[in-house]
Design a protein that fits this description.
Layout: H1 2-25, H2 29-35, H3 37-41, H4 48-58, H5 63-71, E1 75-78, E2 84-90, E3 93-98, E4 104-109, E5 113-115, H6 120-134, H7 140-152, H8 159-166, H9 172-189, H10 193-203, H11 209-218, E6 221-226, E7 235-239, H12 247-256, H13 266-275, E8 281-282, E9 285-286, H14 293-305, H15 315-323, E10 326-331, H16 336-386, H17 393-410, H18 414-439, H19 448-470, E11 486-488, E12 494-496, H20 497-519, H21 521-531, H22 533-538, H23 543-566, H24 577-590, H25 595-615, H26 620-637, H27 648-651
Antiparallel strand pairs: 1-2, 1-5, 2-3, 3-4, 6-10, 7-10, 8-9, 11-12
Helix pairs in contact: 4-6, 5-6, 6-7, 7-9, 8-9, 9-10, 9-11, 10-16, 11-16, 12-15, 16-20, 16-23, 16-24, 16-25, 17-18, 17-19, 17-23, 18-23, 20-21, 21-23, 24-25, 25-26
């Protein structure tokens, strides 16, 4: 009988075990929450971990959504049945959403629903758990957001989930970022000094701001002071009073550490004496004797001897107190091997950052040089061939920029409008240059002062004309979308796409001008007139016609430069004035009338200006002043420029 009963019980137990296992496997999120209903409804920082562990163990995909809603106070409990829902206000009640399926669960009256409001500490715990879920979320944006969250608030418990998510990461960029972030966490929160040192050494190959921030955090110091240097601390630096630390600050640290009494100033001494007046005396000294410094000193000394006031701190006593103590900086990190590794890694990174800063500075200088080259090449041709000091050259740049702006108002497609604007700006400024040469310049050859004054007056007139037509407000010349953004090599080196485009445009014009001057008949005639106008005229070349075409060509190139410059600078009537000085400096330094000289001058001025700005970034005016002084000195030693021209311009 007993044996039969045992067999029956074993059979029933065998039947019940698969059922329980299936029920555990197929349980939904609501069942997990009901099993921990008290922790959900009244979460506490100490008890919420049990619920979080249960949610993680369930492996349910909707857990991530629940954690988000729970942290944002979007979870409600219905009093009538104790179930949990996502809820939103709807009329006089709430519209419910099932936490397990995300389906509509009807409505409920307001008095039947209780909002779950976890406090700040609980939300931080939830946030940490949520990040762990999001690290392996199918959505790339969620995984990226989780990494951003870890980077903002790194913690030791994030290291293992982050490492676990690396193996399944499919996006190569995000995988590399996860690996670097895991190394940063290991450097700060590794289980052993060896693990932390290995992570720190691995980080020495990076130059990102985040990596430098982690290493600087490891190297964080706090000031300390003691009679002798304490044993067992990780000393970063022993401070020398007078060199590393002022005497006043050193004594203030002694007072803060309760190692010296606070010093009393004159007003404090007077206040203490006033507080201790007793029967017409202070410390036995009549009040009438307190009118002098000596009398006040005797009264204060008497009070101090009686213990009524703190002892007076004399300069000699202060110096003695400072001299008898050691001032130092102590690392927060107590392990010296870790701080040594961090310091060595940070020094390597700083050297690499410096080299990359030089590369970035070189790219900026190259970009600026290309802008100056475009702005000055037309002036170089005009000045070199004709000897005309054209102060209105900057206004041709302005005319080209405004031409691009007008074209964009007609053609809204920015790419197409840019293609149309470049030849249109050349045509407009070419025609304006020819008109200026025919009407004014041709009558002023070999009269440089009159030419300078006339072109200066024309520049003022053109500026006022632009103001009358377009107003004084800056006009935008919008670049196409494919020129937006920048080419970013790393955290230090990067250059805007628009500047790359201007550099390419400068190269194109360099090649085009060299082709025209060296491979075409008009270029041959220009070079002939430049080198010997009399001999060129005797060979049948019309110098007057060459002067007209040359002036038009130089003006047209300035118009194209205006379109390029206007793409990243605001278009105003005064924009030409910002480039006329640099254009003349480029021409003079490079060599009048020589394309290669203009290129060399633009490169020298671009490098010089960016180099000065690197050492004095907060004062661009000072940078320009130093640059002008350098150029003045330069032309004293090489008045004909880097590439001296042979011919008429050289003789002039």
């Amino acid at each position: 009988m007993l044996r039969a009963l045992l067999v029956t019980l074993a059979f029933c137990l065998a039947l019940s075990l698969p059922t329980a296992a299936a029920r555990a496997q197929n349980q939904d999120l609501q069942a997990v929450l009901q099993a921990h209903a008290e922790e959900v409804a009244n979460p506490g920082r100490q008890s919420v971990g049990t619920l979080i562990d249960a949610l993680i163990a369930s492996g349910l995909p909707e857990v991530s959504t629940f954690l988000e809603k729970w942290s944002d106070k979007g979870v409600f409990q219905r009093a009538s049945d104790g179930l949990f829902y996502y809820a939103k206000r709807s009329g006089d009640g709430y519209a419910l959403t099932d936490v397990s399926t995300g389906a509509d669960a009807g409505t409920a009256p307001r008095d039947d629903m209780t909002e779950i409001r976890p406090n700040g500490g609980v939300r931080r715990v939830i946030g940490t758990a949520l990040v762990q879920f999001q690290l392996s979320d199918p959505d790339l944006a969620r995984r990226t957001s989780a990494l951003d969250s870890i980077a903002r608030r790194p913690a030791a418990d994030q290291l293992e989930p982050l490492r676990a998510s690396i193996e399944t990461e499919q996006d190569p960029t995000l995988r590399a970022r996860k690996e670097q972030l895991a190394g940063m966490l290991a450097a700060s929160f590794g289980d052993s000094p060896q693990e932390r040192i290995a992570a720190i050494e691995a980080l020495s190959d990076a130059i990102s701001v985040e990596v430098r921030a982690v290493l600087n955090q490891i190297l964080t110091t706090r000031p300390g002071v003691a009679a002798t240097l304490p044993a067992g601390i990780n000393v970063a630096q022993v401070l020398e009073v007078g060199d590393d630390l002022g005497e006043a600050e050193a004594y203030a640290r002694l007072v803060e550490a309760n190692l010296a009494p606070p010093a009393q100033d004159r007003e404090r001494i007077k206040a203490l004496l006033t507080e201790n007046i007793d029967g017409g005396t202070v410390g036995g000294i009549p009040i009438g004797q307190l009118a002098t410094e000596a009398g006040r000193a005797r009264a204060y000394a008497a009070l101090a001897a009686a213990g009524t006031v703190p002892p007076l701190v004399t300069p000699e006593g202060r110096d003695a107190a400072v001299a008898s103590h050691v001032f130092y900086l102590e690392y927060d990190e107590r392990d010296a091997t870790i701080t040594d590794a961090a310091r060595e890694a940070l020094d390597e990174i700083d050297n690499r950052v410096f080299l990359n800063q030089l590369i970035d500075l070189g790219l900026d200088a190259l970009s600026l040089a290309s802008i100056y080259f475009l702005a000055a090449i037309g002036l170089a041709i005009t000045f070199g061939v004709m000897g005309v000091i054209n102060m209105a050259h900057g206004e041709f740049i302005m005319m080209g920029a405004y031409t691009g702006y007008v074209v964009q108002q007609i053609i809204p497609d920015y790419t197409l409008s840019l293609i149309v604007a470049l030849p249109m700006a050349f045509a407009v400024t070419f025609a304006a240059g020819v008109a200026m040469e025919r009407l004014i310049i041709r009558w002023l050859y070999h009269r440089p002062l009159e030419t300078l004054l006339a072109t200066f007056g024309i520049s003022i007139a053109l500026q006022q004309l632009a103001k009358n037509i377009f107003g004084t407000q800056a006009r935008p010349l919008t670049s196409p979308a494919w020129l937006d953004g920048a080419w970013v090599i790393n955290d230090v080196v990067g250059i805007a796409n628009i500047r790359i485009a201007i550099f390419v445009l400068a190269l194109i014009f360099l090649g085009l001008i060299l082709f025209i001057l060296n491979r075409t008949r008009i270029g041959l005639e220009v070079r002939a007139v430049t080198q010997n106008p009399g001999m060129a005229a005797s060979m049948g070349i019309n110098p007057d016609r060459i002067n007209m075409l040359t002036f038009g060509l130089g003006s047209g190139i300035a118009g194209i430069a205006g379109v390029a410059i206007g793409l990243y600078a605001k278009v105003t009537s005064e924009m030409g004035a910002d480039y006329i000085v640099q254009s003349f400096m480029t021409v003079v330094v490079g060599g009048v009338g020589n394309v290669w000289g203009t290129l060399a001058g633009a490169g020298l001025i671009g490098i010089l200006q960016k180099g000065i700005e690197y050492f004095n970034p907060s004062n661009t005016l000072a940078a320009q002043t130093y640059m002008i002084l350098f150029i003045i000195l330069f032309i004293q030693f090489r008045p004909k420029g880097i590439v001296a021209l042979k011919g008429r311009a050289a003789g002039d």
